[in-house]
Amino acid sequence: IRTPLTVLAGFVETLQNLPLDANEQSKYLSLMARQAQRMQTLVEDLLTLSRLEGSPLPGTEPTPLSVFWIALREEALALDQAMAGLLGGLHRIEFDPVDVGAVELLGQRGELQSAMSNLVANALRYTPSSGSVKVSWHQTEAGAGVFTVTDDGPGIAPAHLPRITERFYRVDRSRSRETGGTGLGLSIVKHVVQRHQGELTIESQPGLGSRFIITLPANRVRALPETSVAPGLGAQHPREQHAQ
Ligand code: ADP
């Protein structure tokens, strides 16, 4: 918080003390807006973490996995569009439809949604635009739910892996800043997953890509009666068809 605040205060001082023309002023104002935005994201993430710490353990409110899937897919495509300018192109994004319509998850909907969406967003943010991101789901024989996000981005060196879910831990600070990171995303994911008695596993090979896996225990995953499968879930987004 201090860094963007210091930068912002510096710009305010400049604007107060230097006679700048309209062009220069607008340049400074957009730099200030970016710092303010950065602080906003940081404060939101910090509040999310402290809310997670202070709130009672999640209950067993049921949400069809298809509901998460539709929101995740929309969000991923929107984020990818928004980032296209920055990274110079679109990713190949695949959402595995297998089994998604058959189950519901039991837990705090908003928390689960944000954990899954954080992993998808990271995969998109850290993978160059020529790369691909795959989101999949399966259930183990014992009934545990396994949500996986796989990318073929830069990967994470083994030395960083044990620390990557720590607060503010970032492998490459400049790249994180470029992509609007706070270093809090994975701590939030880990927290949410643990609150649901699940596990976050990270597998990565530098240069080849990363795989982030959320495993939810069997008592957080329940089969849906066949009739309640969301209509049209199997339909593909035109972009995905194009990508395949
Ligand atoms: P940030 O806000 O910096 O993205 P996170 O807690 O979400 O913070 O992630 C921590 C760090 O883990 C990131 O800065 C990045 O270095 C690394 N990271 C996360 N996801 C990926 C990924 N899919 N591929 C490569 N590195 C990743």
Blueprint (SSEs and pairs):
Layout (H helix, E strand, L loop, with lengths): L1 H16 L4 H33 L7 E3 H23 L4 E4 L7 E4 L2 H18 L5 E8 L5 E7 L21 H6 L6 H11 L3 E7 L3 E8 L4 E3 L14 H6 L1
Parallel strand pairs: 2-4
Antiparallel strand pairs: 1-3, 3-8, 4-5, 5-7, 6-7
Bound molecules: adenosine-5'-diphosphate.
How would you briefly describe this protein structure?
The chain is α+β, with helices and mostly antiparallel strands.
Q: Which strand order spans the largest sheet, edge to edge or round the barrel?
A: 2-4-5-7-6
Q: Which molecules are bound besides the chains?
A: adenosine-5'-diphosphate
Order of secondary-structure elements: HHEHEEHEEHHEEEH
Task: Look at the structure and give the mean pLDDT.
Answer: 87
> Structural class, from helix and strand content?
alpha+beta
Shape: elongated
| Strand element count | 8
Give the low-confidence spans. Answer: 234-244
Please give the alpha-carbon distance between the first and last residues: 42 Å
Structure description:
By secondary structure, the protein is of the alpha+beta class. Helix content is 46%, strand content 18%. The protein is built from 7 helices and 8 strands, in the order ααβαββαββααβββα. The protein has helices at 2-17, 22-54, 65-87, 109-126, 173-178, 185-195, 238-243; strands spanning 62-64, 92-95, 103-106, 132-139, 145-151, 199-205, 209-216, 221-223. The strands form 2 sheets. A 5-stranded mixed sheet has the order 2-4-5-7-6. Strand 6 (199-205) and strand 7 form a beta hairpin. The longest helix has 33 residues, at 22-54. It starts with a helix and ends with a helix. Bound molecules: adenosine-5'-diphosphate (ADP). Adenosine-5'-diphosphate is lined by residues 122-123, 126, 151, 153-154, 156, 164, 169-172, 176, 181-186, 210.
